Amino acid sequence: MNKSERNSVLIVDDEKSNIITLTRILGDEYTVKVANNGAYALKVAQSQKPELILLDILMPGMDGYEVMEKLRQTEETKDIPVIFISGLDSEEAEEKGLSLGAADYISKPFKPTVVKLRVYNQIQIIRQLRTIERLNSNLSSAMGDLESAMEELKQSSHAKSTFLANMSHEIRTPMNAIIGISEILLQSDGLTDEIKTGIGKIYNSSDLLLGIINDILDMSKIEAGKMETTIEDYDVASLINDTVNLNLMRFSHKPLEFKLEVNADTPAHLTGDALRIKQILNNLLSNAVKYTKKGEVVFSVDFTRCEDDDKKIILVFSVKDTGVGMSEKELAKLFDDYTRFNMEANRQTQGTGLGMSITHNLLLLMGGEIDVKSKPGEGSLFVVKIPQKRVSNSVLGEETAQSLKNFDTNSLLNNKKSSIIRTPMPYGSVLVVDDVETNLYVARGLLKPYKLKIETAMSGRESIDMIIGGKSYDIVFMDHMMPGMDGIEATKRLREVGYTSPIVALTANAVSGQAEVFLQNGFDGFISKPVDVRELDSALRKFVKNKNVPENMSEGHIDDNDDNDDNDATSTILIESFVRDARKAVKVLNELFVPGGSSKNFNTENIKNFTITVHGMKSSLFNIGEKELSETAKQLETAAREQNLKLIVETAPEFIKNLNSLLARYEPKDSDITEEEPDDLKGKLLQIYEFCDDYDRKSALDLITSIKGGRKETRELLDDVKEKILLSDYEEAAQVLKEFLKVLK
Description:
This protein is of the alpha/beta class and 745 residues long. It is built from 27 helices and 17 strands. The strands form three sheets. Strands 6, 7, 8, 9, 10, 11 and 12 form a seven-stranded mixed beta sheet that branches. The N and C termini lie far apart (83 Å). The model is unreliable at 343-353, 408-419 and 549-570 (pLDDT under 50).
């Protein structure tokens, strides 16, 4: 193709390396024009009118969003398609970019094939539009309608993806507390068998529920034909036991008899996707309970051999109930989305109707099949057949089969916790970075059995200060969503200053594909919340144990001076953490709103801080049982993401008022307030000032804690200074101390 025939592409980016990379990717097929800032990009776009613009978001002076708005305001440039290119978190950045009219979005670092395909797609659209215009100008109106429909479809698809991403984070945050605290309690000594069994059921049910949630979040992949399976070896007895344990709780609320039938010759160890099989069985059993008022539900486990391959078998599961049954017409619609059984007889039954559709799609994915027989008023029989591979020739055997049929869960409990040997690593050190104190509490509890030296930071900036100040760790567990500086930015800066030790993302943002984003941005690993203790153990063995010499691993190095967290009730720890989180939140919110009144400084520029603040309070409130106020925080966060300022201004003042009332209820009464200042107060404040000047976090906080008594003004000052130090605002803390010392008598 001659250069004169090439389509032109304008690349706008302030980083020269990005321009060079994109030019190399596109230069052979397109005429590439470049601009390193927004103002120059507008001039090039108006004068040379490129067919397509690749526009960076974060640029000095005028960012990509502003450039986009100005392009749309000018007649010469308003119709040029724009693809945003950015390393920002796609949940927010992509949504904003598309809302401004962008045609597409490409994440950094660049994948040549993806860049070429997305640019090619946009250029093809441009060529097709021009061809249509040349053939018949009368089609312009119809084309306008088509483009409008395409845009609506694109926005609808994006809205669904955004919903699924937010849903993932919403569910995982409270689940982290449930699973994490259950895990910590199971490590405690002195629990009765009854309590340990109860906590174990909470742990197992929450863990299985989490897996099911993850599969439901993959519904969009099913629709797009991109659903994948995870093939691993698994224990058949554990699969059956987990499934039965979860569903036994459903039977306890109905006069139903539950029976389990197991073929003792069923292979004991197989290869396949155990989690998806559990989801299928859970859907079948939950429906059986839901639509059966009395009688029984029989769950059977069997298999058939494959004559052509002795390493393959067909697992056969059946669920038979004495419920309401279905007509032939209802059977024909059974696997349609959002379809429920026997609507006339079950108007009070809750549910979306997605379960059987997901079950059907998962079976197709695994090469399985399902057969259903049912009659109205007589019940239903579901038979599922799934091909699997043998791992060994061992079978369940009569003893195991009988234990399963007797629901002897204690002898078969295959808790992930009990299967892990936590090797003490007293020679190791870790840093946990998270802005929510309850999350830090859970992380410390899970790490405690390893006898590690554990330090924490409540912001990305604080972690950077600690490491630049000379501290080094075998591993850093870094949260993602944090105010001021998120985990990706903090990791990027640490890598820029030469920090090479492992950094592992520890986050509730676990939508499919997110792990790759973290790995591409300087992280060495990824663990989603709720924390899977096996993944945590694997990371510690890889980055701590395997990198230390054997002589460091002797028992003599183990430090038994553990924290006293286990001596405090979990609820007390959570309340104390909530109080500290709430204090910070109230301060931020009071800067934006008049408490109990109208908005003060709230606008689109500070909406990010507002979003992060109510996001953090949402989980903190939920963790202490304040579900109603947590729901309000969730509504405010959603409103902030949708730029709904009207709803925020109407709702936020009352939320702040209620939060202050809750804080007053939980905050410890300060009985130390006196009319007299403690001895040598000035000298201690000067020492704290010097510690802040030296960025010595621990010494400053220890000295603040040691100061007892004092007037109300002094206590408020110390709280303010402590909060600033926790946020790594050492200079501000020093300035506050300096001003106070000037007036201190």
